[in-house]
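sanity check this record:
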Amino acid sequence: MINQVNFEGYLARSWEHRDLRYMRLANHRLGEDGKTSSDYVTVQIDPSLDFDPRHIKIGRLLSVSGRIIGRDIVEPLKMVVAKSHDGVELPGELSTLVIRRPTAQILATGVKLLSGIKSPKAKPDQKGKPAKKKPELPAVPIQAGVDLADLTADR
């Protein structure tokens, strides 16, 4: 069977755990509402690679090649619930229950820094016009006591 992956994404986070190097890459795409949506993947760096993602600036576009590997994340149910629901507390014994969460990630055997930036373009609205741009702030510095609405009303 073939198990090969080529993936491009923006560096979102990097860390080291048990002498292994990891990074999280975000691959941007246009969502249905025209806004940018991101898909994230965890990448484990092959120990034979001379690449440390902790020295790379967050937001840098990277290309990785490698293969998919499976890994179980073992953690207390209390931590899983804490990540998903604010303010939910589990009864005594449930909070200490340990669970295994199966995950898939990329084992990178090659990493390249890309210089080009590929950002998605906004979809046009229903009338065929480009999506609205963010309002521009006035070039005049804002002074205390001046209403921002008065400065932008002239535009």
Observations:
- The first strand starts at residue 5 and ends at 17.
- The two ends are 61 Å apart (CA to CA).
